[in-house]
Amino acid sequence: MNIKDFKIGQKVFRVSSSRYSRSEYEEVTKVGRKWVTVGSNGQMRFDPEDMLEDGGQYCSSATYYLSEEAYTIHQARLSYWGKFKNIISSYYTPDCDIEQLKEAAKLLGIFESIEENKQSD
Question: Rounded CA gap, 66 and 23, in Å?
């Protein structure tokens, strides 16, 4: 995301990294050059490039999404990818040729990293 994509009054969905905190909508109260500030007390802020809350010298305590639906889609994608990865890592077929593997890697957007690893070997 870009800082220009946020407006004062806009709602964003905050998901805490703590399992004891609830996820909730927060209102954008300020849009600066680098940070987007949210919340009624204006003490929370996040970087729109990675959508992570500023943790100061500690790790981020929350991630922000444009909506609860965007968060749900993100979680579903992570879950599906994990299942897909587990199946692929334990699956081998001798019937698959190198061109089919290259095409699958291109579809997943990992072809370049495969080629880079190949060159470094």
Answer: 13
Q: What is the pLDDT along the chain (121 residues), one digit of tens a residue?
A: 889 999 999 999 999 988 888 899 999 999 999 999 998 777 899 999 999 999 888 888 899 999 999 999 999 999 998 888 887 777 666 677 888 888 888 888 876 666 666 665 5
Residue 77's closest CA among 108, 53, 37, 106?
108
Q: What is the pTM of this model?
A: 0.74
Residue that is written with structure tokens 């399992």 in the block: 19
Instruction: For residues 32 and 40, give the distance between their C-alpha atoms in angstroms, rounded to a whole number.
Output: 17
The backbone torsions φ and ψ at residue 80, rounded to the nearest 5 degrees and listed phi first, read: -65, -40
User: What are the respective helix, strand and coil percentages of the chain, to the nearest 5?
Assistant: 40, 20, 40
Instruction: Measure Cα distances from 97 to 60, 83, 90, 93, 107 in Å.
Output: 44, 23, 18, 9, 16
